[in-house]
Write a structure and sequence with these properties.
Chain lengths: 293, 300
Protein backbone atom coordinates (compact mmCIF):
# COMPACT_ATOMS: atom_id res chain seq x y z
CA UNK A 1 0.00 0.00 0.00
CA UNK A 2 2.61 2.47 1.11
CA UNK A 3 5.06 1.45 -1.55
CA UNK A 4 2.62 2.08 -4.35
CA UNK A 5 2.38 5.75 -3.49
CA UNK A 6 6.02 6.13 -2.55
CA UNK A 7 7.62 7.41 -5.77
CA UNK A 8 5.18 10.28 -6.07
CA UNK A 9 5.28 11.23 -2.40
CA UNK A 10 8.99 10.66 -1.67
CA UNK A 11 10.07 13.70 0.29
CA UNK A 12 12.78 15.86 -1.18
CA UNK A 13 15.92 15.49 0.89
CA UNK A 14 16.33 18.98 2.22
CA UNK A 15 19.99 19.98 2.14
CA UNK A 16 21.73 22.73 4.00
CA UNK A 17 19.96 26.06 4.01
CA UNK A 18 22.65 27.46 1.68
CA UNK A 19 21.05 25.43 -1.05
CA UNK A 20 18.23 27.20 -2.90
CA UNK A 21 15.29 27.20 -0.51
CA UNK A 22 13.11 24.26 -1.38
CA UNK A 23 11.42 24.61 1.96
CA UNK A 24 8.03 25.69 0.68
CA UNK A 25 7.51 22.60 -1.40
CA UNK A 26 9.09 20.34 1.20
CA UNK A 27 6.65 21.61 3.77
CA UNK A 28 3.60 20.50 1.80
CA UNK A 29 5.19 17.11 1.19
CA UNK A 30 5.53 16.30 4.83
CA UNK A 31 1.81 15.91 5.52
CA UNK A 32 1.63 12.22 6.25
CA UNK A 33 -1.72 11.22 4.82
CA UNK A 34 -1.29 12.98 1.52
CA UNK A 35 0.48 10.03 -0.05
CA UNK A 36 -2.34 7.73 1.01
CA UNK A 37 -5.19 9.92 -0.13
CA UNK A 38 -4.39 12.22 -3.01
CA UNK A 39 -1.62 10.28 -4.74
CA UNK A 40 -4.09 7.54 -5.77
CA UNK A 41 -2.16 4.98 -7.75
CA UNK A 42 -4.08 4.71 -11.02
CA UNK A 43 -2.33 1.77 -12.62
CA UNK A 44 -2.56 -0.71 -9.70
CA UNK A 45 -6.22 0.21 -9.23
CA UNK A 46 -6.92 -0.45 -12.87
CA UNK A 47 -5.05 -3.76 -12.88
CA UNK A 48 -6.85 -4.79 -9.72
CA UNK A 49 -10.21 -3.98 -11.21
CA UNK A 50 -9.51 -5.91 -14.39
CA UNK A 51 -8.30 -8.94 -12.46
CA UNK A 52 -11.43 -8.94 -10.27
CA UNK A 53 -13.60 -8.67 -13.38
CA UNK A 54 -11.75 -11.61 -14.96
CA UNK A 55 -12.31 -13.66 -11.80
CA UNK A 56 -16.05 -13.03 -11.86
CA UNK A 57 -16.11 -13.78 -15.58
CA UNK A 58 -14.35 -17.12 -15.10
CA UNK A 59 -16.74 -17.96 -12.27
CA UNK A 60 -19.67 -17.08 -14.49
CA UNK A 61 -18.45 -19.24 -17.38
CA UNK A 62 -17.54 -22.22 -15.18
CA UNK A 63 -20.98 -22.26 -13.53
CA UNK A 64 -23.25 -21.49 -16.49
CA UNK A 65 -21.59 -24.24 -18.57
CA UNK A 66 -21.52 -26.56 -15.50
CA UNK A 67 -17.90 -27.49 -16.16
CA UNK A 68 -17.08 -30.89 -14.75
CA UNK A 69 -13.40 -31.75 -14.93
CA UNK A 70 -12.73 -33.65 -11.70
CA UNK A 71 -13.67 -30.47 -9.80
CA UNK A 72 -17.45 -30.24 -10.17
CA UNK A 73 -19.06 -26.89 -10.79
CA UNK A 74 -22.49 -28.42 -11.39
CA UNK A 75 -23.95 -27.35 -8.03
CA UNK A 76 -21.91 -24.17 -7.62
CA UNK A 77 -24.12 -21.06 -7.76
CA UNK A 78 -23.38 -18.58 -10.52
CA UNK A 79 -22.63 -14.89 -9.88
CA UNK A 80 -26.17 -14.08 -10.96
CA UNK A 81 -27.61 -16.57 -8.43
CA UNK A 82 -25.54 -15.01 -5.67
CA UNK A 83 -26.63 -11.54 -6.68
CA UNK A 84 -30.26 -12.62 -6.53
CA UNK A 85 -29.89 -14.22 -3.11
CA UNK A 86 -28.00 -11.15 -1.91
CA UNK A 87 -30.98 -9.05 -2.89
CA UNK A 88 -33.43 -11.12 -0.87
CA UNK A 89 -30.96 -11.37 2.01
CA UNK A 90 -30.44 -7.62 2.11
CA UNK A 91 -34.17 -7.04 2.11
CA UNK A 92 -35.01 -9.54 4.84
CA UNK A 93 -32.67 -8.01 7.44
CA UNK A 94 -31.68 -11.23 9.21
CA UNK A 95 -28.55 -11.31 7.06
CA UNK A 96 -27.42 -8.04 8.61
CA UNK A 97 -28.20 -9.40 12.04
CA UNK A 98 -25.74 -12.20 11.33
CA UNK A 99 -23.14 -9.72 10.06
CA UNK A 100 -23.68 -7.41 13.02
CA UNK A 101 -23.33 -10.31 15.44
CA UNK A 102 -20.03 -11.40 13.90
CA UNK A 103 -18.70 -7.85 13.93
CA UNK A 104 -19.60 -7.47 17.58
CA UNK A 105 -17.81 -10.68 18.49
CA UNK A 106 -14.73 -9.61 16.51
CA UNK A 107 -14.77 -6.22 18.16
CA UNK A 108 -14.94 -7.63 21.68
CA UNK A 109 -12.54 -10.51 21.16
CA UNK A 110 -10.02 -8.44 19.26
CA UNK A 111 -10.16 -5.39 21.50
CA UNK A 112 -9.75 -7.44 24.65
CA UNK A 113 -6.84 -9.30 23.04
CA UNK A 114 -5.17 -6.03 22.05
CA UNK A 115 -5.80 -4.51 25.47
CA UNK A 116 -4.12 -7.47 27.18
CA UNK A 117 -1.44 -8.49 24.68
CA UNK A 118 0.04 -5.06 23.92
CA UNK A 119 0.77 -4.03 27.53
CA UNK A 120 1.86 -7.56 28.38
CA UNK A 121 4.25 -7.62 25.42
CA UNK A 122 5.66 -4.21 26.34
CA UNK A 123 6.21 -5.24 29.95
CA UNK A 124 7.69 -8.58 28.93
CA UNK A 125 10.10 -6.74 26.68
CA UNK A 126 11.17 -4.52 29.53
CA UNK A 127 11.28 -6.95 32.46
CA UNK A 128 13.25 -10.10 31.95
CA UNK A 129 11.72 -12.08 34.80
CA UNK A 130 8.22 -11.57 33.42
CA UNK A 131 9.43 -12.59 29.97
CA UNK A 132 11.09 -15.72 31.29
CA UNK A 133 7.94 -16.63 33.20
CA UNK A 134 5.33 -15.98 30.52
CA UNK A 135 7.18 -16.96 27.38
CA UNK A 136 7.25 -20.78 27.88
CA UNK A 137 3.50 -20.88 28.62
CA UNK A 138 2.67 -18.82 25.58
CA UNK A 139 4.93 -20.98 23.41
CA UNK A 140 3.02 -24.11 24.43
CA UNK A 141 -0.43 -22.57 23.99
CA UNK A 142 0.36 -20.73 20.76
CA UNK A 143 0.41 -23.68 18.33
CA UNK A 144 -3.05 -24.86 19.43
CA UNK A 145 -5.44 -23.67 16.72
CA UNK A 146 -8.46 -21.76 17.94
CA UNK A 147 -10.81 -24.42 16.61
CA UNK A 148 -9.24 -26.97 18.96
CA UNK A 149 -10.26 -24.71 21.79
CA UNK A 150 -13.97 -24.94 20.96
CA UNK A 151 -14.89 -27.86 23.25
CA UNK A 152 -12.81 -26.43 26.09
CA UNK A 153 -14.29 -22.98 25.61
CA UNK A 154 -17.82 -24.35 25.80
CA UNK A 155 -16.95 -25.99 29.09
CA UNK A 156 -15.20 -22.91 30.44
CA UNK A 157 -17.77 -20.21 29.77
CA UNK A 158 -21.37 -20.07 30.93
CA UNK A 159 -22.81 -18.84 27.63
CA UNK A 160 -22.18 -19.74 24.03
CA UNK A 161 -21.64 -16.11 23.24
CA UNK A 162 -18.80 -15.80 25.72
CA UNK A 163 -17.07 -18.90 24.45
CA UNK A 164 -17.14 -17.61 20.88
CA UNK A 165 -15.69 -14.27 21.95
CA UNK A 166 -13.07 -16.16 23.94
CA UNK A 167 -12.03 -18.14 20.87
CA UNK A 168 -11.79 -14.95 18.83
CA UNK A 169 -9.71 -13.44 21.61
CA UNK A 170 -7.35 -16.42 21.64
CA UNK A 171 -6.86 -16.27 17.89
CA UNK A 172 -5.68 -12.68 17.89
CA UNK A 173 -3.90 -12.73 21.23
CA UNK A 174 -0.69 -14.55 20.30
CA UNK A 175 0.17 -12.71 17.07
CA UNK A 176 -0.26 -9.39 18.89
CA UNK A 177 1.79 -10.51 21.90
CA UNK A 178 4.66 -11.95 19.89
CA UNK A 179 4.92 -9.00 17.53
CA UNK A 180 4.91 -6.52 20.41
CA UNK A 181 7.60 -8.54 22.16
CA UNK A 182 9.68 -8.70 19.03
CA UNK A 183 9.26 -4.97 18.52
CA UNK A 184 10.56 -4.34 22.03
CA UNK A 185 13.69 -6.38 21.36
CA UNK A 186 14.53 -4.29 18.28
CA UNK A 187 14.33 -0.87 19.96
CA UNK A 188 17.56 0.96 19.14
CA UNK A 189 19.54 1.20 22.41
CA UNK A 190 21.07 4.50 21.33
CA UNK A 191 17.61 6.09 21.36
CA UNK A 192 17.09 4.86 24.90
CA UNK A 193 20.42 6.35 25.91
CA UNK A 194 19.62 9.60 24.16
CA UNK A 195 16.39 9.88 26.13
CA UNK A 196 18.12 9.08 29.41
CA UNK A 197 20.83 11.66 28.81
CA UNK A 198 18.12 14.25 28.11
CA UNK A 199 16.78 13.65 31.59
CA UNK A 200 14.04 11.09 30.92
CA UNK A 201 13.08 8.93 33.89
CA UNK A 202 12.57 5.17 33.59
CA UNK A 203 8.82 5.61 33.15
CA UNK A 204 9.21 8.47 30.68
CA UNK A 205 11.65 6.41 28.61
CA UNK A 206 9.11 3.61 28.47
CA UNK A 207 6.36 5.96 27.35
CA UNK A 208 8.36 8.20 25.04
CA UNK A 209 10.81 5.75 23.49
CA UNK A 210 9.92 2.08 23.91
CA UNK A 211 6.25 2.53 23.08
CA UNK A 212 6.54 4.63 19.90
CA UNK A 213 9.57 2.64 18.73
CA UNK A 214 7.51 -0.54 19.04
CA UNK A 215 4.35 0.86 17.42
CA UNK A 216 5.13 -0.35 13.86
CA UNK A 217 5.56 -3.91 15.16
CA UNK A 218 2.44 -3.57 17.31
CA UNK A 219 0.44 -2.68 14.23
CA UNK A 220 1.91 -5.60 12.32
CA UNK A 221 0.69 -7.76 15.18
CA UNK A 222 -2.74 -6.15 15.13
CA UNK A 223 -3.10 -6.72 11.39
CA UNK A 224 -2.08 -10.38 11.65
CA UNK A 225 -4.18 -10.77 14.80
CA UNK A 226 -7.25 -9.39 13.05
CA UNK A 227 -6.86 -11.94 10.27
CA UNK A 228 -6.57 -14.83 12.72
CA UNK A 229 -9.50 -13.43 14.72
CA UNK A 230 -11.77 -13.85 11.69
CA UNK A 231 -10.49 -17.35 10.98
CA UNK A 232 -11.16 -18.35 14.59
CA UNK A 233 -14.53 -16.64 14.75
CA UNK A 234 -15.87 -18.31 11.62
CA UNK A 235 -14.71 -21.72 12.82
CA UNK A 236 -16.33 -21.18 16.21
CA UNK A 237 -19.58 -19.93 14.68
CA UNK A 238 -19.79 -22.89 12.32
CA UNK A 239 -19.43 -25.32 15.20
CA UNK A 240 -21.34 -23.76 18.04
CA UNK A 241 -23.06 -20.63 16.82
CA UNK A 242 -26.68 -19.68 16.53
CA UNK A 243 -25.97 -16.40 14.86
CA UNK A 244 -23.15 -14.90 12.89
CA UNK A 245 -21.94 -14.98 9.35
CA UNK A 246 -20.10 -18.28 9.87
CA UNK A 247 -23.31 -19.86 11.14
CA UNK A 248 -25.22 -18.33 8.19
CA UNK A 249 -22.80 -19.95 5.73
CA UNK A 250 -22.94 -23.37 7.35
CA UNK A 251 -26.70 -23.26 7.72
CA UNK A 252 -27.06 -22.42 4.03
CA UNK A 253 -25.29 -25.70 3.27
CA UNK A 254 -27.58 -27.67 5.59
CA UNK A 255 -30.67 -26.05 4.06
CA UNK A 256 -29.39 -26.65 0.49
CA UNK A 257 -29.40 -22.93 -0.28
CA UNK A 258 -26.18 -23.06 -2.23
CA UNK A 259 -26.14 -19.47 -3.39
CA UNK A 260 -26.21 -18.35 0.25
CA UNK A 261 -22.96 -20.27 0.83
CA UNK A 262 -21.19 -18.09 -1.71
CA UNK A 263 -22.89 -14.98 -0.31
CA UNK A 264 -21.65 -15.84 3.18
CA UNK A 265 -18.13 -16.47 1.92
CA UNK A 266 -18.01 -13.18 0.05
CA UNK A 267 -19.33 -11.36 3.11
CA UNK A 268 -16.56 -12.92 5.23
CA UNK A 269 -13.97 -11.85 2.67
CA UNK A 270 -15.25 -8.30 2.52
CA UNK A 271 -15.49 -8.00 6.31
CA UNK A 272 -11.95 -9.33 6.76
CA UNK A 273 -10.63 -6.93 4.15
CA UNK A 274 -12.45 -3.98 5.65
CA UNK A 275 -11.21 -4.68 9.16
CA UNK A 276 -7.58 -5.03 8.16
CA UNK A 277 -7.92 -1.86 6.09
CA UNK A 278 -9.30 -0.09 9.15
CA UNK A 279 -6.32 -1.18 11.20
CA UNK A 280 -3.91 0.01 8.57
CA UNK A 281 -5.66 3.37 8.48
CA UNK A 282 -5.46 3.71 12.25
CA UNK A 283 -1.79 2.76 11.98
CA UNK A 284 -1.18 5.57 9.52
CA UNK A 285 -2.87 8.05 11.79
CA UNK A 286 -1.01 6.80 14.85
CA UNK A 287 2.36 6.83 13.10
CA UNK A 288 2.48 9.89 10.85
CA UNK A 289 6.27 9.68 10.71
CA UNK A 290 6.27 6.35 8.90
CA UNK A 291 4.28 7.80 6.01
CA UNK A 292 7.27 10.01 5.20
CA UNK A 293 9.34 6.95 4.32
CA UNK B 1 51.34 6.33 30.71
CA UNK B 2 53.91 8.57 29.08
CA UNK B 3 53.00 12.19 28.77
CA UNK B 4 54.79 13.80 25.89
CA UNK B 5 54.02 17.45 26.05
CA UNK B 6 54.75 18.88 22.65
CA UNK B 7 53.97 22.41 23.51
CA UNK B 8 52.19 23.94 26.42
CA UNK B 9 50.37 27.19 26.40
CA UNK B 10 52.51 29.55 28.49
CA UNK B 11 49.79 31.98 29.41
CA UNK B 12 47.23 30.69 31.91
CA UNK B 13 43.96 29.58 30.39
CA UNK B 14 41.05 32.01 30.63
CA UNK B 15 40.41 32.02 34.35
CA UNK B 16 36.85 30.85 34.92
CA UNK B 17 37.39 29.36 38.33
CA UNK B 18 33.94 29.75 39.81
CA UNK B 19 32.01 28.54 36.76
CA UNK B 20 30.52 25.09 36.48
CA UNK B 21 31.27 22.37 33.98
CA UNK B 22 34.57 20.93 35.15
CA UNK B 23 35.38 17.36 34.15
CA UNK B 24 37.95 15.33 36.06
CA UNK B 25 38.80 11.80 35.09
CA UNK B 26 41.23 10.24 37.54
CA UNK B 27 43.11 7.02 36.86
CA UNK B 28 40.04 5.76 35.00
CA UNK B 29 39.86 2.15 33.92
CA UNK B 30 37.05 0.18 32.35
CA UNK B 31 36.95 -3.53 31.77
CA UNK B 32 34.22 -5.25 29.73
CA UNK B 33 33.29 -8.77 30.74
CA UNK B 34 32.79 -10.71 27.53
CA UNK B 35 32.23 -14.35 26.62
CA UNK B 36 35.94 -14.61 25.76
CA UNK B 37 36.98 -13.21 29.13
CA UNK B 38 37.55 -9.69 30.34
CA UNK B 39 38.61 -6.94 27.92
CA UNK B 40 40.40 -3.88 29.25
CA UNK B 41 39.03 -1.11 27.06
CA UNK B 42 40.64 1.77 28.93
CA UNK B 43 43.19 1.79 31.70
CA UNK B 44 44.76 4.49 33.84
CA UNK B 45 43.44 7.53 32.03
CA UNK B 46 43.54 10.90 33.76
CA UNK B 47 42.33 14.03 32.10
CA UNK B 48 40.60 17.29 32.95
CA UNK B 49 38.44 19.77 31.15
CA UNK B 50 38.17 23.20 32.73
CA UNK B 51 34.84 25.02 32.73
CA UNK B 52 34.31 26.57 29.32
CA UNK B 53 37.19 24.72 27.71
CA UNK B 54 37.08 22.88 24.38
CA UNK B 55 39.08 19.67 24.61
CA UNK B 56 39.45 16.94 21.99
CA UNK B 57 40.46 13.31 22.23
CA UNK B 58 42.02 11.56 19.27
CA UNK B 59 43.14 7.98 19.17
CA UNK B 60 43.04 4.85 17.04
CA UNK B 61 39.83 2.92 16.54
CA UNK B 62 38.90 0.74 19.48
CA UNK B 63 41.06 2.56 22.04
CA UNK B 64 38.08 3.26 24.26
CA UNK B 65 37.04 6.80 23.35
CA UNK B 66 33.34 5.97 23.22
CA UNK B 67 33.72 3.95 26.41
CA UNK B 68 35.09 6.98 28.20
CA UNK B 69 32.34 9.30 26.97
CA UNK B 70 29.72 6.75 27.96
CA UNK B 71 31.17 6.66 31.46
CA UNK B 72 31.02 10.44 31.60
CA UNK B 73 27.44 10.41 30.37
CA UNK B 74 26.64 7.95 33.14
CA UNK B 75 25.88 4.82 31.11
CA UNK B 76 28.92 2.86 32.32
CA UNK B 77 30.51 2.61 35.75
CA UNK B 78 34.29 2.82 35.88
CA UNK B 79 35.89 -0.42 37.08
CA UNK B 80 38.72 1.60 38.55
CA UNK B 81 39.41 5.25 39.21
CA UNK B 82 36.86 8.05 39.28
CA UNK B 83 34.82 10.17 36.91
CA UNK B 84 33.92 13.53 38.42
CA UNK B 85 31.82 16.40 37.19
CA UNK B 86 32.20 19.58 39.24
CA UNK B 87 33.82 17.51 41.95
CA UNK B 88 31.00 14.96 42.25
CA UNK B 89 31.18 11.39 40.98
CA UNK B 90 28.91 10.67 38.02
CA UNK B 91 26.01 8.54 39.28
CA UNK B 92 23.98 8.08 36.11
CA UNK B 93 22.74 9.81 33.00
CA UNK B 94 21.40 13.33 33.35
CA UNK B 95 20.56 16.43 31.41
CA UNK B 96 23.48 18.39 32.89
CA UNK B 97 25.69 16.55 30.40
CA UNK B 98 24.53 16.69 26.79
CA UNK B 99 25.65 13.79 24.64
CA UNK B 100 25.97 13.51 20.87
CA UNK B 101 26.33 9.87 19.93
CA UNK B 102 28.46 8.29 17.25
CA UNK B 103 25.24 7.11 15.52
CA UNK B 104 22.35 9.40 14.67
CA UNK B 105 19.99 9.35 17.61
CA UNK B 106 17.03 11.58 16.79
CA UNK B 107 13.65 10.08 17.67
CA UNK B 108 12.14 9.17 14.29
CA UNK B 109 8.58 9.55 15.60
CA UNK B 110 9.09 13.17 16.61
CA UNK B 111 9.40 16.16 14.35
CA UNK B 112 12.53 18.28 14.54
CA UNK B 113 10.96 20.73 16.98
CA UNK B 114 9.54 17.90 19.12
CA UNK B 115 13.00 16.34 19.29
CA UNK B 116 14.47 19.62 20.48
CA UNK B 117 11.68 20.04 23.01
CA UNK B 118 12.17 16.58 24.48
CA UNK B 119 14.62 17.52 27.22
CA UNK B 120 12.51 20.50 28.22
CA UNK B 121 9.45 18.29 28.40
CA UNK B 122 11.33 15.95 30.72
CA UNK B 123 12.14 18.97 32.87
CA UNK B 124 8.41 19.59 33.16
CA UNK B 125 8.28 22.85 31.22
CA UNK B 126 4.90 23.99 30.02
CA UNK B 127 4.09 23.16 26.42
CA UNK B 128 4.01 26.68 25.05
CA UNK B 129 7.15 27.68 26.90
CA UNK B 130 9.19 24.75 25.67
CA UNK B 131 7.96 25.26 22.12
CA UNK B 132 9.10 28.87 22.30
CA UNK B 133 12.56 27.95 23.57
CA UNK B 134 12.98 25.16 21.02
CA UNK B 135 12.03 27.54 18.20
CA UNK B 136 14.57 30.11 19.35
CA UNK B 137 17.36 27.52 19.37
CA UNK B 138 16.37 26.12 15.99
CA UNK B 139 16.46 29.66 14.64
CA UNK B 140 20.01 30.12 15.92
CA UNK B 141 21.05 26.92 14.17
CA UNK B 142 19.36 27.94 10.92
CA UNK B 143 16.84 25.11 11.14
CA UNK B 144 13.60 27.06 11.50
CA UNK B 145 12.16 26.05 8.17
CA UNK B 146 12.56 22.35 8.98
CA UNK B 147 11.00 22.35 12.44
CA UNK B 148 8.01 20.28 11.35
CA UNK B 149 9.97 17.71 9.36
CA UNK B 150 10.52 14.19 10.58
CA UNK B 151 14.21 13.21 10.91
CA UNK B 152 13.99 10.57 8.19
CA UNK B 153 13.70 13.24 5.55
CA UNK B 154 16.78 15.17 6.67
CA UNK B 155 20.37 14.96 5.43
CA UNK B 156 23.09 13.66 7.74
CA UNK B 157 24.44 17.12 8.49
CA UNK B 158 21.04 18.41 9.47
CA UNK B 159 20.36 15.41 11.69
CA UNK B 160 23.58 16.05 13.60
CA UNK B 161 22.77 19.74 13.86
CA UNK B 162 19.36 18.96 15.31
CA UNK B 163 21.06 16.49 17.67
CA UNK B 164 23.38 19.24 18.93
CA UNK B 165 20.53 21.69 19.35
CA UNK B 166 18.53 19.05 21.22
CA UNK B 167 21.42 18.37 23.58
CA UNK B 168 21.91 22.08 24.20
CA UNK B 169 18.23 22.85 24.77
CA UNK B 170 18.24 21.76 28.40
CA UNK B 171 21.13 24.11 29.17
CA UNK B 172 23.81 21.53 30.03
CA UNK B 173 27.13 22.59 31.54
CA UNK B 174 28.97 20.02 29.48
CA UNK B 175 28.64 18.77 25.94
CA UNK B 176 30.09 15.36 25.05
CA UNK B 177 30.47 14.62 21.34
CA UNK B 178 31.46 11.21 19.99
CA UNK B 179 32.78 11.57 16.44
CA UNK B 180 29.72 13.64 15.55
CA UNK B 181 30.85 14.57 12.06
CA UNK B 182 32.46 11.27 11.11
CA UNK B 183 29.77 10.36 8.58
CA UNK B 184 29.62 13.76 6.88
CA UNK B 185 31.28 14.93 3.68
CA UNK B 186 34.19 17.37 3.93
CA UNK B 187 32.18 20.45 3.00
CA UNK B 188 29.37 19.81 5.47
CA UNK B 189 31.94 18.97 8.11
CA UNK B 190 33.52 22.44 7.82
CA UNK B 191 30.15 24.12 8.22
CA UNK B 192 29.30 21.95 11.21
CA UNK B 193 32.62 22.82 12.86
CA UNK B 194 31.84 26.48 12.47
CA UNK B 195 28.35 26.04 13.91
CA UNK B 196 29.67 24.08 16.86
CA UNK B 197 32.33 26.71 17.58
CA UNK B 198 29.75 29.48 17.46
CA UNK B 199 27.41 27.68 19.83
CA UNK B 200 30.23 26.83 22.23
CA UNK B 201 31.41 30.44 22.37
CA UNK B 202 27.94 31.77 22.82
CA UNK B 203 26.89 29.33 25.54
CA UNK B 204 30.27 29.13 27.35
CA UNK B 205 29.96 25.42 28.10
CA UNK B 206 32.69 22.81 28.42
CA UNK B 207 33.12 20.50 25.45
CA UNK B 208 34.78 17.10 25.24
CA UNK B 209 35.03 16.16 21.60
CA UNK B 210 36.09 12.77 20.23
CA UNK B 211 37.33 12.60 16.67
CA UNK B 212 39.56 10.70 14.26
CA UNK B 213 40.37 13.83 12.32
CA UNK B 214 43.54 15.67 13.37
CA UNK B 215 42.69 18.87 11.49
CA UNK B 216 39.31 18.95 13.15
CA UNK B 217 40.82 18.47 16.60
CA UNK B 218 43.39 21.23 16.13
CA UNK B 219 40.97 23.65 14.52
CA UNK B 220 38.34 23.32 17.26
CA UNK B 221 40.24 22.74 20.47
CA UNK B 222 42.05 24.49 23.27
CA UNK B 223 43.78 21.22 24.08
CA UNK B 224 44.05 17.80 22.46
CA UNK B 225 44.62 14.48 24.21
CA UNK B 226 46.17 11.67 22.17
CA UNK B 227 45.30 8.15 23.26
CA UNK B 228 47.24 4.92 22.85
CA UNK B 229 45.90 1.77 21.26
CA UNK B 230 43.82 -0.54 23.48
CA UNK B 231 43.86 -0.60 26.40
CA UNK B 232 43.51 3.12 25.91
CA UNK B 233 45.72 5.42 27.93
CA UNK B 234 46.80 9.02 27.44
CA UNK B 235 49.88 9.19 25.25
CA UNK B 236 50.20 12.94 25.02
CA UNK B 237 48.50 16.18 25.85
CA UNK B 238 48.94 18.99 23.34
CA UNK B 239 47.90 22.60 23.88
CA UNK B 240 46.60 24.54 20.87
CA UNK B 241 47.48 28.18 21.50
CA UNK B 242 45.94 29.45 18.26
CA UNK B 243 44.00 32.69 18.59
CA UNK B 244 40.21 32.83 18.38
CA UNK B 245 37.97 33.41 16.57
CA UNK B 246 39.51 30.99 14.11
CA UNK B 247 38.91 31.24 10.40
CA UNK B 248 39.37 28.33 8.06
CA UNK B 249 42.35 30.00 6.42
CA UNK B 250 44.10 29.12 9.67
CA UNK B 251 44.65 25.55 8.58
CA UNK B 252 47.29 26.78 6.12
CA UNK B 253 49.27 28.68 8.76
CA UNK B 254 52.66 27.39 9.85
CA UNK B 255 51.57 27.14 13.51
CA UNK B 256 48.66 24.96 12.54
CA UNK B 257 50.79 22.78 10.32
CA UNK B 258 53.40 22.32 13.02
CA UNK B 259 50.78 21.15 15.51
CA UNK B 260 49.27 18.90 12.91
CA UNK B 261 52.62 17.32 12.08
CA UNK B 262 53.36 16.65 15.73
CA UNK B 263 50.00 15.02 16.32
CA UNK B 264 50.26 13.05 13.12
CA UNK B 265 53.48 11.35 14.16
CA UNK B 266 52.07 10.54 17.60
CA UNK B 267 49.01 8.98 16.06
CA UNK B 268 50.79 7.04 13.39
CA UNK B 269 52.69 5.00 15.98
CA UNK B 270 49.48 4.12 17.76
CA UNK B 271 47.55 3.29 14.61
CA UNK B 272 50.24 0.82 13.61
CA UNK B 273 50.05 -0.75 17.06
CA UNK B 274 46.27 -0.88 16.87
CA UNK B 275 46.46 -2.82 13.62
CA UNK B 276 47.94 -5.72 15.54
CA UNK B 277 51.61 -4.87 15.64
CA UNK B 278 52.54 -7.07 12.68
CA UNK B 279 53.31 -4.04 10.55
CA UNK B 280 56.37 -2.82 12.42
CA UNK B 281 59.41 -1.08 11.06
CA UNK B 282 61.29 -4.36 10.53
CA UNK B 283 58.46 -5.86 8.55
CA UNK B 284 58.37 -2.78 6.36
CA UNK B 285 62.12 -3.10 5.74
CA UNK B 286 61.68 -6.75 4.82
CA UNK B 287 58.96 -5.79 2.42
CA UNK B 288 61.24 -3.28 0.72
CA UNK B 289 64.01 -5.91 0.43
CA UNK B 290 61.62 -8.32 -1.23
CA UNK B 291 60.64 -5.72 -3.75
CA UNK B 292 64.28 -5.02 -4.45
CA UNK B 293 64.91 -8.69 -5.08
CA UNK B 294 61.87 -8.81 -7.31
CA UNK B 295 63.09 -5.88 -9.32
CA UNK B 296 66.49 -7.47 -9.76
CA UNK B 297 64.94 -10.74 -10.83
CA UNK B 298 62.88 -8.90 -13.45
CA UNK B 299 65.84 -6.93 -14.72
CA UNK B 300 67.89 -10.08 -15.30
N1 LIG C 1 29.86 -3.70 25.23
C1 LIG C 1 31.10 -4.12 25.01
N2 LIG C 1 31.46 -5.38 25.38
C2 LIG C 1 32.71 -5.81 25.15
N3 LIG C 1 33.69 -5.09 24.59
C3 LIG C 1 33.40 -3.84 24.20
C4 LIG C 1 32.09 -3.29 24.39
N4 LIG C 1 32.09 -2.04 23.91
C5 LIG C 1 33.32 -1.81 23.45
N5 LIG C 1 34.12 -2.89 23.62
C6 LIG C 1 35.54 -2.98 23.27
O1 LIG C 1 36.22 -1.99 23.98
C7 LIG C 1 37.16 -1.33 23.16
C8 LIG C 1 36.88 0.15 23.14
O2 LIG C 1 35.66 0.39 22.47
P1 LIG C 1 35.16 1.84 22.14
O3 LIG C 1 33.90 1.73 21.39
O4 LIG C 1 35.17 2.64 23.37
O5 LIG C 1 36.32 2.35 21.16
P2 LIG C 1 36.42 3.70 20.34
O6 LIG C 1 37.72 4.32 20.68
O7 LIG C 1 35.22 4.53 20.54
O8 LIG C 1 36.50 3.17 18.85
P3 LIG C 1 35.96 3.85 17.50
O9 LIG C 1 36.93 4.94 17.18
O10 LIG C 1 36.03 2.74 16.50
O11 LIG C 1 34.59 4.34 17.77
C9 LIG C 1 37.05 -1.96 21.78
O12 LIG C 1 38.12 -2.87 21.64
C10 LIG C 1 35.75 -2.70 21.81
O13 LIG C 1 35.85 -3.89 21.08
MG1 LIG D 1 33.65 5.12 19.30
Amino acid sequence: MASAAAPAAAPARPELPQAPPVAGSARTRRLGLRGAVSGLPVRPALVGFVSLALFVMAWHLLTTYRVNVYVRFANVPSPADVLASAETAFLSGTFFEHVGMSCRRILFGFLIAAAVAVPLGLLMGRFRLLREAVFPVSEVLRPIPAIAWVPMAIMLWPTNEQSIVFITFLGSFFPILLNTLHGMSTVDPVLVRAARSLGASEAATFREVYLPATLPQIFTGLTVGMGVAWVSLIAAEMISGQFGIGYFTWEAYSLVQYSDIALGMIAIGVLGLASSFAIRLIGRLAMPWSAAR
Amino acid sequence: MTVVSLKRADEPRPAVQNRLGKIEIEDFGLRYETANGPVDAVSGVSLTVEPGEFVSIIGPSGCGKSTMLNALAGFLKPTSGAVLVDGRPVEGPGADRGMIFQQYSLFPWMTVVQNVEFGLKMKGLHRSERRRQARTLLGLAGLSQFENHYPDGLSGGMKQRVGIVRALATGPRILLLDEPFGALDAQTRLIMQQILTNMWQRLKISVLFVTHDIDEAVFLSDRVYVMTARPGAIKAEVAVPLPRPREHALIMSSEFLALRRGLMSLIREESLKAMGGEINADALKGLAANFDGHDIAKAL
